[in-house]
Amino acid sequence: MYVIYQMQRKWGILLVLILSQMTPVWAQEEGVVDPDSSGVVSNRMLPTSTPILLFSDRDEEVKEKKKQAKKKERKNFYFGERTSRNVIRTSFRDQTTVQLFNTTQRNQKVDAYIRDIYWYDSRAKAIKNRNFDPSRGYLLHGPYEKRINDVVVESGMYYYGTKHGRWMTFDGKSVLVDKSYFYQGWPRESRITYYNREQKAIERLTPIEYDLEEGNYYHFFPGGQVAVIGEYRYGERVGLWTEFWESKGDSLVRKREIQYQPTPFMRNFRPFIRAEWDKEGNLIYRNDG
User: Fold this and answer.
1) Superkingdom of this entry's organism (predicted)?
2) Which residue from 249, 250, 247, 241 is spatially nearest to 275, judged by alpha carbons?
3) pLDDT digits (tens, 9 = 90+) for 70-120
């Protein structure tokens, strides 16, 4: 009987230890919100209708530039916006890098369709192109120039945080090595197709740079609501691509998410469906990979 008592006592102690270890896990799981529990998208930055992007209006842009050129120049005013001049200077060994740029403190709303939004993080004293935070800094707006040991290696223009117009890069001997053109963040070679061109009802936006897909891709329903969102890098699909149900109002409901390679040229990676939802936003399938 004593042996049986000792065994029961040991098993009881072991059970208490197991339960004590499991309790924090249960508590933690109760506080965690499953991001897939609902397919309804609450992110206000996500596009709900087609962008005001009309590549056919470039002629109007040229006319506007000529009109602006005739007006008296005002210091630190670009595209009708007052800006502030900024400088970032860094040194490493015998090399000094200087970045000259302007920022605007107004119109801090960024375009949800553009992948790369350039802004100056005043706390970190650095230029960033993702996760713009108005409480930490300001959008780049106006001319930009980068110099290494007094030699210009890059120059261009920003328009409310997006690359705009002609951008050029040079080597250390001031020889031009690259020249590209942008329209408010979109590479000028980007492809745009319409359901109805006269009504400017956009079907697809495909960013093209150097003959390769590069940037955020969008497909829209005929009514203007976004149908598919994804990202290209070097001509390949990367990251999470999301399909949506066509719905009424401003709310968006995810239909399916497909996980592609996190970085380009991962030949051993096979895309897979990560999750699916019904039209009401109820999760019906999930694969965590």
Assistant:
1) Bacteria
2) 241
3) 544 578 899 889 999 999 999 988 899 999 999 998 767 787 788 899 999
Contact 273, 255 (CB under 8 A): no
- List the beta bridge partners of residue 41: 252
Amino acid at site 216: N
Of 156, 160, 144, 60, the C-alpha closest to 111 is 160
- What value does the mean pLDDT of the chain take? 81
Is the C-alpha dihedral spanning 28, 30, 32, 37 positive or negative? positive
Which domain-ending residue is among 152, 183, 214? 183
What's the CA gap between 187 and 173, in Å, rounded?
27
Same domain, 171 and 255: no
236, 135: one domain: no
CB 127 within 8 A of CB 118: yes
The CA distance from 275 to 192, in Å, is: 29
Residues 86 and 147 in one domain: yes
Both tokens of 101, joined, read 């740029």
CB 144 within 8 A of CB 138: no
What is the 3-state composition of the chain as percent helix, strand, coil, each rounded to the nearest 5?
15, 45, 40
Q: Which two tokens stand for residue 115?
A: 């992948």
What is the pTM assigned to this prediction?
0.70
- Its domain, for residue 246, covers 36-53+188-289
User: What are the structure tokens assigned to 260, written together?
Assistant: 């592609």
